[in-house]
Design goal:
The radius of gyration is 19 Å and the shape is globular. With about 270 residues, it is α+β, with helices and mostly antiparallel strands. α2 runs antiparallel to α3. It contains six helices and 13 strands.
Length: about 270
């Protein structure tokens, strides 16, 4: 027993292997997607890595694969890499996010466009990952003076008891009730806004200020992983000043109910 005890302590102190494998697999899919775009072009990469029902936001939700298939070849290079990822305990759904830069030409840096992407990934029957929602939030170039403190990537742990709202209908109900965001925030909630760098700290302060501006949140879609611990929604919003656009929200089920992991907004031009 004395020989077995240290082994048990080591095993129980290690992160769950299945969770780490799923997380690294998810991050690997995003990196492979970016590498494919670098080697074979943006159009070919999105056609290959988007799911058949995968959505892009242009800014409105648009079926991504037909959109890219109908495009002429895109001149220029799109570079990106994941800096933060979360995968569900069911290992069937998760998200990645990080910075990107689009360079129409390598020589003219004045034409480069920066931002942050958010990708929702879903596991397929052949055990591969497909991108089912791809959302961009443009901003100015990052510099050494504007570091972003990303949370550590992680795999969710299985729920001890499945919450009755851990369903697509329950998540839609939560999203519809999002007129006041205070009950849904967690300490690491990420907020992405066009023209601003991502915020992972003090997000609540920004959202409290913004709540006065919005006149409508209209969810259009929701999906929940098989473990009931991870989901996402997207929809349409408008402000009192007449601005309109679309949002993507990523949710985690916690003992208190659905909590917001990330919210990204774009704007209709």
């Amino acid at each position: 027993m004395k020989k077995i005890l240290p082994v048990l302590l080591i095993l129980f102190s290690m992160p769950p292997l299945w969770g780490q494998q799923s997380l690294q697999s998810l991050i690997g899919a995003e990196k492979a997607f970016a590498s494919y775009a670098d080697s074979l072009g943006v159009k070919a990469a999105f056609v290959s890595y988007l799911g058949d029902s995968g959505m892009i936001f242009t800014p409105k939700p648009t079926l991504g694969k037909p959109f890219y298939q109908n495009l002429s070849n895109i001149s220029g290079k799109l570079y990106w890499h994941p800096t933060y990822a979360v995968v569900s305990a069911g290992s069937d759904i998760g998200f990645t996010t990080g910075p990107y830069v689009f360079k129409p030409t390598e020589k003219d840096s004045s034409s480069w466009r920066w931002g942050h992407f958010t990708s929702i990934w879903q596991k397929q029957a052949d055990d591969s990952w497909k991108n089912v929602a791809d959302f961009g939030s443009p901003h100015t170039a990052l510099s050494a003076h504007t570091p972003i403190a990303y949370p550590a990537s992680y795999a969710l742990t299985p729920l001890k008891r499945k919450n009755e709202k851990a369903t697509k209908a329950g998540l839609l109900e939560t999203d519809k009730a999002y007129t006041s965001n205070a009950p849904y925030l967690s300490p690491g909630t990420a907020i992405y806004r066009e023209g601003q760098y991502p915020r992972f700290e003090a997000a609540g302060e920004l959202l409290k200020q913004e709540n006065q501006q919005y006149s409508l949140w209209q969810p259009l879609y929701a999906a929940v992983g098989k473990a009931g611990d991870f989901g996402y929604t997207y929809g349409h919003y408008s402000t009192k000043s007449g601005n309109k656009g679309y949002y993507l929200r990523i949710w985690q089920m916690q003992p208190q109910g659905w909590k917001l992991l990330l919210e990204s907004l774009n704007q209709e031009k």
